[in-house]
Design goal:
Layout: E1 4-11, H1 17-29, H2 31-43, E2 49-54, E3 58-65, H3 70-82, E4 91-94, H4 96-107, H5 118-128, E5 132-133, H6 139-157, H7 167-178, E6 187-190, H8 194-202, E7 209-211, H9 219-224, E8 228-229, H10 232-237, E9 247-250, H11 258-264, E10 273-276, E11 293-296, H12 301-310, H13 312-339, H14 350-363, H15 370-379, H16 387-401, H17 406-415
Parallel strand pairs: 6-7, 6-9, 7-8, 9-10, 10-11
Antiparallel strand pairs: 1-3, 1-4, 2-3, 2-5
Length: about 425
């Protein structure tokens, strides 16, 4: 069985942004249901590993599979869960295309903001912390690790991270253009996720106030930076407190804050600046008063385009370099794994089985657990249909070991 990397993807280049916004909102509210869908595909043996990369501009499912039989299953499940009918927007990449794509994503040349830093963090989190099912010696982890290494190389050796590298950079520029001095301005930040932390860090010298659904979950952040936490229920009980702020920044996904903000609108200062960076926006559309200055991500496009033009040559140069890197490093690694059955199974050979049997014997003073050895091999990715073959080999090794003393076993194990 030869397994190959596939990618089922949506992104801002081929999908209307309102669809991506709605999908992101649905995903954030139903993460466990999406995980169940992906894991059910594992149980049905449609694929053997998965990693999901979900952001406001992309929804990408990386899969290790034998063929495309997963396509109809995933699209049908997505439609049932989201009611968005996104089939026509999904694209499929495979093998080398997948490797090139994830490397470009990690480097920031596929982002709406060229050189974006957040995507590198999001990609790292997707396969190191959550949103994945990968086996030991995972080929998908191998791909992501290589992409990360190449991305760091070109992020550090080029000017791809010059200018804007996040929506936070643009929002901060807008604030500094409006106010030459933020010293006397009272700032309130809603949300302490990745984007919220950006503002917490960059506005810490101005003693901002911060609130979120779980404010004390971020205790280390407001102790590290000079910020003032507000429990969310305080705003719900006393919406008039928002009249104290000159700048309000929301970094919340979905419409979590909308119902509360409706009660606060009438208390806002007439010259307040509201930066609604939610995906989709969650409060800007509630503000009718034209005197109140409000900004959403969609208004950042002119600044993004201007900045991207300056980095276009760097982007194209990096894309060419990535092609060379893929050929030189990633493909070599993939081919090596193909020869070893493509799932990290190369190590499951006679020598390794002998080592497992020896270790079991030494650990349990001559009492060998065949089931334990099979369990370890299964965790490394052996196919169920191969268990009988490996079980027979383990039996052979156990019989052979009966003729060796414990000291001889120790010596042999050290050699292996």
């Amino acid at each position: 069985m030869i397994l190959k990397p596939y990618l089922l993807k949506l992104d801002y280049k081929g999908t209307p942004q309102n669809h991506l916004d709605n999908l992101y909102k649905i995903y954030r509210n139903n993460e466990n249901k999406f995980t169940d869908i992906f894991n059910e595909g594992i149980r049905k043996e449609m694929y053997y590993e998965w990693i999901l990369l979900s952001t406001c501009h992309r929804f990408e499912v990386y899969l290790l599979a034998e063929n495309l039989k997963f396509k109809d299953y995933l699209l049908n499940e997505f439609n049932k869960l989201t009611n968005l009918n996104l089939d026509k927007f999904f694209k499929i990449l495979k093998e080398r295309e997948v490797l090139e794509h994830i490397t470009k994503v990690a480097t920031g040349v596929e982002s709406k903001i060229i050189g974006e830093k957040d995507i590198f963090i999001q990609m790292k989190e997707s396969y190191e912390i959550k949103n994945c099912y990968c086996k030991k010696n995972s080929i998908l982890r191998f791909i992501f690790d290589k992409a990360k290494m190449i991305a760091l190389k070109y992020r550090n050796s080029t000017n791809i991270e010059s200018g804007f590298t996040s929506y936070g950079d643009i929002a901060l520029k807008i604030l500094k253009n409006k106010y030459s001095n933020l010293e006397n301005k009272k700032i309130l930040i809603f949300g302490a996720g990745n984007l919220g932390k950006y503002f917490i860090k960059n506005l810490s010298s101005f003693n901002p106030f911060v609130t979120s659904r779980n404010i004390y979950f971020y205790k280390k952040d407001y102790e590290k930076y000079n910020i003032n936490p507000i429990e969310f229920y305080q705003i719900e009980k006393n919406p008039k407190m928002l009249s104290n702020f000159d700048i309000i920044i929301t970094c919340l996904a979905g419409d979590f804050f909308s119902s509360v903000f409706k009660k606060c609108i009438k208390y806002l200062k007439k010259d307040v600046i509201v930066l609604d960076l939610g995906v989709p926006p969650n409060i800007a559309n509630l503000i009718i008063d034209k005197k109140i200055r409000k900004y959403t991500l969609s208004q950042f496009s002119p600044l993004i385009q201007k900045d991207n033009i300056l980095k276009e040559k760097i982007k194209e140069k990096i894309k060419e370099k990535i092609k060379e890197e893929i050929k030189k490093t990633i493909i070599e690694g993939i081919e090596e794994r193909k020869e070893k059955n493509f799932m990290g199974l190369s190590d499951v050979n006679d020598k390794k089985i002998k080592a497992y049997v020896l270790r079991s014997s030494l650990k349990y003073n001559g009492k060998i657990s065949k089931e334990s050895i099979l369990g370890k091999l299964f965790n490394e990715g052996i196919d169920k249909k191969d268990i009988t073959k490996f079980a027979a080999k383990i039996d052979e090794e156990i019989e052979w070991l009966k003729n060796l003393s414990i000291e001889e076993q120790k010596s042999l194990f050290e050699e292996l």
